[in-house]
Design a protein that fits this description.
309 residues, Phosphorylase Kinase, domain 1, single chain, alpha+beta, Aminoglycoside 3'-phosphotransferase, Chain: A, domain 2
């Protein structure tokens, strides 16, 4: 707890507090804590080391969070501590969905409506391109000699095809996006039914299909939602769904998995270089290699079949 005390002393509203309790909670890139100050609960995010190498801009993040909080879909910001970018927000009461709860039409529609609300938020100054992020993370991983899969060039060829699809899309696909809507990044409340979205590190102007792809894989460790629920999500978002929209979503599912695989590889490379600490009970390299060999390969095959006919 030695690292936390000096940070707590920099939160103006907590000066003179009679009692402060600290509890560590989950997190990989950052250290996260629940802090109870004189009976009131907050979330403290201590910014991870070398997050700039992951293209995380804390000023953009807090701008997105403040806009989302004003719209009622994110926790209120209590303090933003510079230059590190440590963040204090109000504690949100809620829970993560189980795998079964993620796979009901009712909750898929609720998630789809939430995605539309996010896409109506104003820009925060950031731009998120999964193609640019993949290239950036690849450069970081190669800088520290991370092991790439033998078929990596084939994944990049598929990425180029997906990028060409985006360039040929004449619809209004560019919106403000969250870009990381996995289940641990939002909390569900039942009375009334609502969602509060957390972790706006990657938020920025991006491709709406990428947000929809993350919603498809919202319980990422258990694979995608079934095809009929994916169609439910698209119908909720668009109304009438076309084959082109299905193809665009399929392409962004590939990009989501390629981005995630490279994120793990870049994190592994920085860890082995001594730039970031090793997380507890998580192996970045094992995670990345599994995605390359299974999830990404399967999505690549599905996309190529869809593109051919």
């Amino acid at each position: 707890m030695d690292i936390i005390r000096p940070i707590l002393s920099r939160v103006p509203a907590w000066q003179g507090a009679q009692e402060i309790k600290i509890e560590r909670i989950a997190g990989l890139t950052n250290q996260n804590y629940r802090v109870t100050v004189d009976g009131r609960r907050y979330a403290l995010r201590i910014s991870g080391e070398n997050t700039a190498r992951l293209n995380i801009n804390r000023q953009h993040e807090v701008a997105a969070l403040q806009a989302a909080a004003a719209a009622g879909i994110a926790p209120q910001v209590e303090a933003f501590i510079l230059p590190e970018g440590h963040l204090v927000t109000r504690w949100v009461e809620g829970r993560h969905w189980t795998v079964e709860e993620c796979r009901t039409p009712q909750h898929i529609r609720l998630l789809g409506e939430m995605v539309k609300r996010i896409h109506a938020l104003p820009p925060n100054g950031a731009v998120f391109s999964p193609f640019a992020r993949v290239r950036n993370y690849e450069a970081v991983a190669r800088q520290f000699n991370a092991p790439f899969p033998a078929n990596y060039a084939g994944f990049i060829q598929t990425m180029q095809a997906v990028e060409a699809d985006q360039q040929q899309d004449t619809s209004d696909w560019q919106r403000f996006c969250h870009n990381d809507l996995v289940c641990v990044n939002y909390l569900f409340s039942e009375n009334p039914e609502s969602i509060k979205v957390l972790d706006w590190e990657f938020a920025g102007l991006g491709d709406l299909y990428y947000d929809l792809a993350t919603a498809v894989f919202t319980h990422d460790s258990d694979g995608p939602i079934p095809a009929e629920l994916e169609e439910e999500l698209l119908t909720c978002y668009f109304g009438t769904v076309t084959d082109w929209q299905r193809r665009r979503l399929q392409g962004m599912k590939v990009m989501l998995m390629l981005f995630t695989s490279l994120w793990g590889l870049a994190q592994h490379s920085m860890q082995t270089a001594g730039l970031i600490p090793a997380p507890e009970d998580f192996d970045y390299l094992e995670f990345s290699q599994y995605l390359f060999a299974h999830d990404l390969r399967d999505l690549q095959e599905q996309y190529l079949r869809a593109a051919q006919g």
